[in-house]
């Protein structure tokens, strides 16, 4: 019996080594995953988020229904997320649709606020989804979570008003790359966080 166990482990090691060094699974983004692989990976991702977010507590000073916090989150979304995910009424850039996995168009139904916070704060390996810059800034991902929690209530005009302080603040039919693309007035990039009166 012991001989069979050792033989099985050796065969497993050889097969694993062959898989690693010969790389038979095509990792090209131009080729879809084999059937079922994307579902398994996405299912694991969802479970990993849910398990890690369940122990989070919304800080006492964070009111996820606060319109000011939601507007701040919309501004963060416009700066950091819009390029890959598109926005309410604003389609994704076709380039990101060639990513594997392609960044999804978002909906408030995807996750709850604590899960949105965890995703924004920590990102995902091997997807292009970055962790939030600056480990000490937990307040900013909560603002983004507040916005994403209300995402489905925004149309394009409402999103532009929240993110850029006025409708028509984004002049492109789709998302362009680079900086804060499509802003009609450069000062709108500042007003989205600081407000038109500079008081935030």
Q: How many distinct helices?
A: 8
Class based on secondary structure composition and strand pairing: mainly alpha
| Share of residues in strands | under 5%
Low-confidence stretches: none
Shape: elongated
Which percent range fits the helix content? Answer: 40-55%
Tell me the domain tally.
Answer: 1
Count the E strands.
0
Question: Mean pLDDT, as a whole number?
Answer: 84
Q: First CA to last CA: what distance?
A: 72 Å
Order of helices and strands: HHHHHHHH
Largest sheet: none
> What is the C-alpha radius of gyration, as a whole number of Å?
21 Å
List the helices and strands and how they pair.
Elements: H1 2-22, H2 37-53, H3 67-80, H4 82-85, H5 113-122, H6 139-149, H7 156-164, H8 187-194
Task: Describe the protein in words.
By secondary structure, the protein is an all-alpha fold. The chain has one domain (29-194). The protein has 8 helices and no strands. The chain has helices at 2-22, 37-53, 67-80, 82-85, 113-122, 139-149, 156-164, 187-194. It is elongated.
Looking at this protein, list some descriptive labels.
single chain, 200 residues, mainly alpha, 0% strand
């Amino acid at each position: 019996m012991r001989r069979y166990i050792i033989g099985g482990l050796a065969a497993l090691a050889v097969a694993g080594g062959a898989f690693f060094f010969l790389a038979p699974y095509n990792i090209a983004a131009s080729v879809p995953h084999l059937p079922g692989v994307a579902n398994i990976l996405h299912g694991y991702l969802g479970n990993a988020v849910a398990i890690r977010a369940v122990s989070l507590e919304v800080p006492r000073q964070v009111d996820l229904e606060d319109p000011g916090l939601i507007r701040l989150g919309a501004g963060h979304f416009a700066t950091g997320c819009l390029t890959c995910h598109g926005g309410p009424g604003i389609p994704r850039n076709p380039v990101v649709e060639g990513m594997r996995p392609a960044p999804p168009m978002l909906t408030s139904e995807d996750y709850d606020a604590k899960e949105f916070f965890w995703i924004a704060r920590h990102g995902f390996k091997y997807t292009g989804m970055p962790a939030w810059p600056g480990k000490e800034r937990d307040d900013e991902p909560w603002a983004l979570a507040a916005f994403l929690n209300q995402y489905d209530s925004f149309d394009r005009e409402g999103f532009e008003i929240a993110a850029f302080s006025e409708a028509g603040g984004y002049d492109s039919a789709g998302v362009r790359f680079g900086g804060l693309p499509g802003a009609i007035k450069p000062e709108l990039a500042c007003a989205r966080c600081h407000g038109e009166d500079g008081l935030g």
